[in-house]
Amino acid sequence: MDGRLLIFSGSANPDLAREIATSLRMTVGRAMVGQFKNGETRIKLHDNVRGCDVFVIQPTCIPVDHHLMQLLLLIDALRRASARRVTAVIPYYGYAKQEKKTAGREPISAKLVANLIRTAGADRVLTMDLHAPAIEGFFDIPVDHLQAAPLLSDYIHGLNLPNPVVISPDAGGVGRANRFRERIGAGLAIIAKQRPEPDTAEVLEMVGDVEGKTAIIVDDMISTGGTLVEAAVALIERGASKVYACATHGVFAADALEHIAHSELIETIVTNTIPQSPTAPDARVRVISVAPLFAEAIMRIHKDLSLSALFS
Ligand code: R5P
User: Fold this and answer.
1) Element (DSSP H or E) covering residue 45
2) Is 86 in the same domain as 36?
3) Nearest CA to ligand 1 atom 10
4) What distance in angstroms lies between residue 221's CA and the mean position of ligand 1's atoms?
5) Separation of 9 CA from ligand 1 center, angstroms?
6) Is the predicted pLDDT of residue 113 greater than 90, yes or no?
């Protein structure tokens, strides 16, 4: 790709943007990302971007609408300032849970958000562990879809846990859990979960033997923490000796960290796709940085190199 490589960031995760830029021996581009007094988002780029290959780093985490709007306006500003190519780097893609209609008269929010990002002027998307892989197809532009599994499984592998068994906390996550299991050479168990209402989780049944084993729950995100906490209770009831959890996106909505702090979980491992505050030490949350992986992906996209090697 011709054109200078530049990185910009909204206010969603400036630390991650800085870490990525540092890995690339660069600094984050100068921009004002603020608000007018009437509550509207205000953007002003301070650096010249004409002819540049620009990557905008912005996970659409809480407050989701605010961060999404910043992303859209940053892309629009870059387009209008004649950037040659704009890549939306969305380490955590919000609205992904609403990727299909589960009942009549509901939106497909993940599709609408994909349309908005494209309409704003993004040429490509770089993201990580979409809640549903099908969301990639909602975009009519190239999407590079990274996985945190190599990072998370390396960490778990390093713990040398005795007799490990990987747990999928719901039927939809079996493929993810199975790939994780293969990486660390563990067994597999599957939980059948139901949601009596939005944001509450209930364990129905479990398939697989966890008796006397170290259980590692693998999920894409932790939102209210209900899935994890309920799964941990069910695992201990069925004889698991210890329970760990791994998830790419630590959303930790509402009082999720409090619930986790009082749960059976020994340690919960997440990445920094969403900024993590060290305010709940009792929750025993470990954060693994995805910055080097995103930096490498950005460099490869910029140089038109393959990304396949990053998935292994
Ligand atoms: C299931 O749909 C997802 O993979 C996660 O299990 C879910 O998003 C976690 O949500 P919560 O923490 O609110 O139970």
Assistant:
1) strand 41-45
2) yes
3) 223
4) 6
5) 27
6) yes
The count of structural domains within the chain is 2
Tell me the pLDDT of the chain averaged across its residues. 95
Distance 5 CA to ligand 1 centre (A): 36
**Ligand 1 cavity residues, CB under 6 Å:** 169-170, 172-173, 199, 201, 219-227
42 with 61, same domain: the answer is yes
Q: Are residues 134 and 168 in the same domain?
A: no
Q: Which of 290, 298, 306, 309 is nearest to 129 (CA)?
A: 290
For residues 195 and 278, what is the distance between their CA atoms, to the nearest angstrom? Answer: 30
- What would the pLDDT profile of 23-41 be if each residue is shown by its tens digit? 999 999 999 999 999 999 9
Look up residue 30 and give its two tokens: 């100068």
Stronger pLDDT, 242 or 203, i.e. the higher one: 242
If asked whether residues 82 and 200 sit together in one domain, one would say no
Q: Which of 191, 223, 265, 268 to mutate for ligand 1's pocket (most ligand atoms within 8 Å of CB)?
A: 223
Catalytic residue among 193, 213, 242, 303: 193
Same domain, 278 and 307: no
What phi and psi, each to the nearest 5 degrees, are found at residue 176?
A: -60, -45
Report pLDDT for 278: 65
Based on the domain organization, do 171 and 58 belong to the same domain?
no
The domain containing residue 114 runs over which residues? 5-148+292-311
pLDDT bucket at 312, cuts 50 / 70 / 90: confident
Given ligand 1 and candidates 227, 263, 268, which is best to mutate, with the most ligand atoms within 8 Å of its CB? 227
Provide the pairing of β-strand 5-9 with 202-207: unpaired
Concerning whether 97 is annotated as a catalytic residue, the answer is no
Residue closest via CA to ligand 1's atom 1 equals 170
Which pLDDT belongs to residue 282?
79
CA 201 to ligand 1 center in whole angstroms: 8
What digits encode the pLDDT tens for the residues 260-297?
999 999 999 999 999 998 666 677 999 999 999 999 99
pLDDT at 280: 66
Q: What is the DSSP string of 202-233?
A: EEEEEES--TTSEEEEEEEEESSSHHHHHHHH
Query: Does 17 share its domain with 142?
Result: yes
